[in-house]
Design goal:
The chain has about 190 residues and is of the alpha+beta class. It has nine helices and six strands, in the order ββββββααααααααα. The strands form two sheets. A four-stranded antiparallel sheet has the order 1-2-5-6. A two-stranded antiparallel ribbon has the order 3-4. The radius of gyration is 25 Å and the shape is elongated. Bound molecules: zinc ion (ZN). Zinc ion binds near residues 20, 22, 25 and 60.
């Protein structure tokens, strides 16, 4: 038997647009409504509760806008244990990268990243884990070195100055490149 969501509950009146979006009638009322919905099917179906703004027009009746759809989308992401679109955007923002630059770096499609950030689709678990790994600056820098092997050793070293263990690895590579006999044993002596 299909699960049926609990009925919605009006929580309180909140600020919203003055005029109805579809008929331009003034006096639009907006309320915050707890509106549970069923996500999934069969055994996996769960009820997810969200609080969404509901507008009521004296002419059109009650309706929800894009904001409500976004809130439901984010609730599904959290339920699935996946990053929300804003969290993906923030990750990219942390490194001050455009979508195009992030796509080049990660090998992900620019259009794919845009679809995740615009809530058109939800990333799969593999991609979600990839994105979460990139939240670690040391891993991000490792990826940068992978994506731009032509970058000079100096440039990479400058960029990892704040990450000591990566710096050490990088030095080891530099010694190797120079043909310096480098081993842990020599240093330990
Ligand atoms: Zn209306």
């Amino acid at each position: 038997m299909a699960k049926i969501a609990s009925p919605p509950t009006v929580l309180r009146e909140i600020d919203g647009p003055e005029i109805c979006g579809s008929c331009d009638t003034p006096g639009l009322r907006t309320e915050l409504v707890r509106d549970p919905f069923i996500y999934g099917a069969g055994e996996d179906a769960v009820e997810l509760a969200v609080e969404i703004p509901v507008h009521t027009c004296s002419y059109c009746g009650s309706y929800t806008g894009e904001e409500a759809a976004d809130i439901r989308h984010d609730a599904v992401c959290r339920h699935l244990g996946l990053l929300t679109p804003n969290e993906i955007r923030e990750l990219r923002g942390e490194y001050e990268m455009s979508r195009a630059a992030f796509a080049t770096l990660t090998g992900l499609g620019e259009a794919t990243i845009a679809r995740w950030e615009r809530r058109a689709v939800i990333q799969n678990v593999a991609n979600d884990r990839y994105l979460r790994l990139l939240q670690n600056p040391a891993i991000f820098l490792q990826l940068k070195a992978l994506a731009h092997p032509e970058a000079s050793v100096d440039a990479v070293r400058d960029s990892v100055i704040a990450v000591p263990h990566v710096l050490q690895l990088d030095r080891a590579k530099e010694y190797r490149d120079r043909g310096v006999g480098f081993s842990l044993h020599e240093h330990a002596a």
